[in-house]
Amino acid sequence: MMLKIILYAYTQSVFSGRRIEKLLHDSIRMMWLAQNQTPSYKTINRFRVNPNTDALIESLFIQFHSQCLKQNLIDNNSIFIDGTKVEANANRYTFVWKKSIQNHESKLNENSKTLYRDLVEEKIIPEIKEDGDSDLTIEEIDLIGSHLDKEIEDLNHSIENEDCAQIRKQTRKKITEIKKFKKKFDDYSERKNKYEEQKSILKDRNSFSKTDLIMMQLL
Fold it and tell me: Of 141, 137, 139, 80, nearest to 115 (Cα)?
């Protein structure tokens, strides 16, 4: 199912995980392909960057190309205009550098760990890691986001059952603060997925062109 919705989205020039998720709610074709299942953009992105999935998509593309040749639908001299934009004069801003990814990811890991510890100390969320010094995984970051959603939901219920105006005011203030934390962890999750995708493209290289990412998405 995941493969079907991703390949269909690519045929519609939709490559963003968030936009693919939106199609699952807006497009009748996507709803049919997904059998009304609605995986989140985080699930979609994790599926795409999995090494096994990457190899599978490449294999399917080769088979598809071979079948088109056999059916005389295309030939090896065909040129397709697909809307891809490639910058003519490549410079350092058109490349993604391994060092840059490592630096950004290191800062993200440190910031997310610090905020996680603060939330545990303030008893806003339960402790989810035995080793508090290790970096948070994507799954743990998403789990923290789920705990924050639950905390916001519980506080909203408490407001409905609270008669004291002052306490309701304090609770709303706390909800606002927690929503800020939730927004940060949503950002951490999205960036962490992006860095994982970039590292899967880099492999043993020190850099890659942003056009590599575009072409990989088209496949």
Answer: 141
Q: How far apart are CA 204 and CA 213, in angstroms?
A: 16
How crowded is residue 158: how many other Cβ atoms within 10 Å of its Cβ? 14
Domain ranges of the chain: 2-83, 93-207
Segment 199-208 long-range contacts (CB within 8 Å, at least 24 positions apart): 199/101, 200/49, 200/51, 200/54, 201/96, 202/96, 202/98, 202/101, 205/98, 206/97, 206/98, 206/99, 207/95, 207/96, 207/97, 207/98, 208/95, 208/96
Q: Where are the beta strands (DSSP E) in the chain?
A: 95-97, 207-209
Angle at 192 between CA 10 and CA 211, to 5 degrees: 45
CB count in 10 Å sphere of residue 112: 22
3 state DSSP class of 41: helix
CA distance 146 to 185: 10
Using a cut of 0.70, tell me whether the model's pTM lies above it: no
* C-alpha to C-alpha distances, 152 to 2, 86, 181, nearest whole angstrom: 31, 44, 11
Question: Alpha-carbon distance 187 to 91, whole Å?
Answer: 28
Are 5 and 20 contacting, i.e. CB atoms less than 8 angstroms apart? yes
pLDDT in tens, 5-48: 887 887 777 888 889 999 999 999 899 999 999 999 889 888 87
